[in-house]
Amino acid sequence: MNKPIVTGIGVLAPTGLGTEQYWAATRNGAKGIGPVSRFETEQYPVVLAGEIDGFEAREHLASRLLPQTDHMTRLALVAADWALADAGAKAEELPEFSAGVVTASASGGFEFGHRELEALWSKGSEHVSAYQSFAWFYAVNTGQISIRHGLRGAGGVVVTEQAGGLDAFAMARRRLRDGAGLMLTGGVDSALCPWGWVAQIACGRLSTSADPERAYLPFDSAANGFVPGEGGAILVVEDPESAAARGVARDYGTFAGYSATFDPPPDSGRPSALRRAIENALDDAGCQPSDVDVVFADGAGVPELDLAEAEAISAVFGANGVPVTAPKTATGRLYSGGAALDLATALLALRDGLIPPTPNVSELAPGIDIDLVTGQPRRADLRTAVVLARGYGGYNSAVVLRAPDKP
Amino acid sequence: MSEMTCTDLVAIIRECAGDSDTADLDGDILDVSFEELGYDSLAMLETAGQTQRRYGITLDDDVVVEAKTPREFLDLVNGKLVAAA
Q1: Left, alpha or beta for A270 (phi > 0: left; psi -120 to 50: alpha)?
Q2: A207 & A116 share domain
Q3: Backbone angles phi, psi at A287, to 5 degrees
Q4: Could you state, in chain order, the average pLDDT of each consecutive group of 10 residues for chain A (407 residues)?
Q5: A127, B46: Cβ pair inside 8 Å?
Q6: Interface of B with A in 16-45 (CB under 8 A)
Q7: In order of start, what are the domains of chain B with their CATH numbers?
Q8: The domain that contains A133 carries what CATH number?
């Protein structure tokens, strides 16, 4: 089959609700990190997050869905609605079994689970919601999106921490190769509740800074961990022939290549396998490193991980050989939503010929030889973008995107 | 505790499972099946759980899913309330 194209994007991020609002904020370097407002953080070492403001679930979803959904599922359902609308795809007009859903999830519905666990230990088991049986579950966003739109084709969920957004995209590509016509894919996460907070803090990589402008500084000499956030993106990917058959006239770009690798054990002395993921993805796309116009970095914000990523990028593209950006410093790291949102951002950058900046980062750490776009957005003729993502535990993924052919 | 009415049941359903997408729950729904109203077995377990806590009775899950309409559900609950009185 031909390489899949992206025909719809739905975004909910700390810097904007909806694709165009998010993109306007992102290209101008707007910032969405601030003190956590959702719960009291006084007793925790981490106090900042990228929260989505102004989202009222009942404005978008029927009351039937509210008692059975976690916050992150509500966000995902709305992102999916917006992505389908953007693609001009009406679920009822698609062949029932040829459209499916593959999302990534890093944690499931923590806020819902927190509330039910609290009911369990303070009031007793008869007070726990029957909906807890699925509302917390990793696969719940895939399931709820599928039910809402009657998409009964192949479905699935990928759990690879922050690499998940790219890995779900690749699994959707596999389903298209198997014969599906249209897939909804991406990731949306949120775990901004005390239970989710302690689970995130346990990874040891969160910034304890209370300064929103200094807390998440990947590649910077002051890097000190990352700030978590919520939200993400859902994308519509289609087989180009099937899209043309339903009258699609424009798309955001082509899913040209992908690879995933897994790191050796931390004590092995062997290097990260990220470089191999980039090289394999370029091979898969039939690209040379010199064809790549911009790289969207993973941007861990942890000095040794930043150095490993910069070394991998420099090894493939040469020192300062390609513009690199990490607009996620404006939102925090969004877990499975992070790389999905980066895919959306990269496609919008290709569309407009504009590389969005990396807010807050100013002074690169010693040994980081990359051309990081900071301060102002950079205009460029962009044809090919690479998106990188790493998940806790050793996951590396790389995706190559190509701008649509000019008419 | 006094008898459970359809109005009481509707209030609990709305709280536990949200409003019906297909019917006006304030209308005559006594003999409309829960399925037609858009409530699945989990919605009914949730409704039964809240009913048990509010009325201080015990309803077996198996029996709850056998009640297909509001009338059957109310008969079940009110039968328990009479037995407990």
Answers
A1: beta
A2: yes
A3: -115, 150
A4: 93 98 96 97 97 96 95 98 96 88 96 96 93 96 96 96 98 96 97 96 97 98 98 97 93 98 93 97 98 98 98 98 98 98 98 98 97 97 98 97 85
A5: no
A6: 16-21, 38, 42, 45
A7: 6-84 (1.10.1200.10)
A8: 3.40.47.10
